[in-house]
Amino acid sequence: MSNRHYDVVVIGGGPAGAMTSYYLARQGVRVAVLEAKAFPRDKPCGGGLQARVISHIPFDISPIIRGRVRRIALSYGLTRAHTRTAADPLVFTVLRSEFDQYLLDKARESGAIVRQGTRVQQIATTSGGKVKVVTESDTVTCDCAVGADGANSTVNRLLNPRSSYFWQAGVYCEVPEAVLERGAAEPDRMLVDWGTVRGGYAWAFPKTGSINIGAGGPTAVARHLRTYASEFAVRTGLVRRQTAEQLKFTGHQLPTLTNATVLAKGRLLLVGDAAGLVDPFTGDGISAACHSAYIAAQCIIANLGRGISDVGGYAEQLYSALAVELLRSRKLLTLSIALPRRIYSLFAHSDRAWQTFCRVVCGQDSFDALRKEVLGPFGFASKAIEFVASLWEARAIGSAACSEPVRTLPT
Predict the structure, then answer these.
(1) 175 vs 47, 51, 226, 274, CA distance in Å?
(2) CA atoms of 98 and 176, how far apart (whole Å)
(3) Are 145 and 11 in contact (CB under 8 A)?
(4) Using CA atoms, how far apart are residues 302 and 285, in angstroms rounded to an integer?
(5) Which alpha helices (DSSP H) does 281-323 contain, by range?
(6) What pairing do the DSSP bridges indicate for beta strands 131-135 and 120-125?
(7) Is residue 158 within 8 Å of 123, Cβ to Cβ?
(8) What phi-psi label fits residue 266: left (phi over 0), alpha (psi between -120 and 50 degrees) or beta?
(9) Among positive and negative, which fits the CA dihedral 71, 96, 257, 56?
(10) Which candidate, 258, 321, 274, places its Cα nearest to that of 295?
(11) Cis omega before residue 40 (within 30°)?
């Protein structure tokens, strides 16, 4: 493999990288996937696929689906749980080890060269205008390189400082069915808590054989998330306290792009988490990862077909298709931090807000519609309200002095 040349090298074999490679290989592009780890591998993630992801995966994923969620039990401050029901599944649950392996196998079957256990050490542009990718074992060149290597992307470091993203954090634990309290987990119902930690929430995704329990929020509250997730597991009756104390949570950082984020430059482009495509309000990153893969592949194919390797048009396409919606979601998160009770009340008791949320999760409506539900009759003053909310958000989560939970969690 030494000094091999490809049309495209995709760095990272997760959902964004696998799907980008799948689309490229299907069109006859010579593409290699360089993945640092060996699959199947565990991935810190809740494993909940929002229904909209189905429209961005052009093949059947039912073999690896472990649950279909139609009901959400929403609590506020670990109390007052209220269950809402949707007509169709809102979330499909998976084990990330199985899901990621499945997508990568589809890329390989389509003709992509997949190299696992291959860690990229350096990326540079050659004197001839190609991209040189240096791994631990050899060097390859390509006409275009795709950064699909997650939140700590090697490719991304060439394009952006860390400050170009809004950062959140999550902790996760896949809890075996055998240690759950009998009858506590229902196969079509996920649990969500809101308003306990500033800007954060906890969840439980039911799956065949296990349930994923976790919590997420802005990095300012990250140190509280393990305690929060454990207490959530106890208060919801999923596990006993002594069991919750033994749960092994793993953490992960979640980036969301900002107006300052560079998504492509020259022969380099970013997809998935490397591009900062995590939905800040719901924490979903897989839907946008798979969507960005399609946009990236189509842009690369079009440019290669014209003998052009520059992917400058990708950023504009991604912005109109995805980034605008993520920035809207970011505004909604700001409002939710300032008005947590309002958010809970709407989701728990307003049929109109609930239906709007369902349409958003299914890809049928925009976060802008949900934001309007939150603002209600004060929509005429949206700019002023959002400005005040942003100041409150900065006060609530933007400084160490104000990063404590809203209420103290029991120890």
Answers:
(1) 12, 23, 14, 28
(2) 16
(3) yes
(4) 26
(5) 286-305, 313-318
(6) antiparallel
(7) yes
(8) left
(9) negative
(10) 321
(11) yes
pLDDT at 126: 82
Closest CA to 269 of 315, 221, 326: 315
Using the Cα atoms of residue 280, residue 258, residue 143 and residue 116 in order, give the sign of their dihedral: negative
> What is the length of the chain?
411
In 24-78 the beta strands, taken as DSSP E runs, fall at: 31-35, 48-50, 67-69, 71-76
| Angstrom distance (rounded) from CA 212 to CA 180 | 11
Residue 304 confidence (pLDDT):
82
For 153, list phi and psi in degrees, rounded to 5.
Answer: -55, 130
pLDDT at 406: 30
CA distance 271 to 392: 32
Q: Are strands 31-35 and 5-11 parallel, antiparallel or unpaired?
A: parallel
Rounded to 5°, angle at Cα 401 from 396 and 407: 60
End-to-end distance of the chain based on CA atoms, in angstroms? 55
The stretches of 339-381 forming alpha helices (DSSP H) are 340-349, 351-361, 367-375
Mean pLDDT, consecutive 10-residue stretches, the chain (411 aa), reads: 82 98 97 96 93 95 97 94 96 97 98 96 86 93 95 93 95 96 93 93 96 95 95 96 94 94 93 97 96 96 75 89 94 92 93 96 94 87 88 70 31 30
CB 104 within 8 A of CB 18: yes
Task: State the pLDDT at residue 394.
Answer: 84
Question: What Rg do the C-alpha atoms of the chain give, in angstroms?
Answer: 21
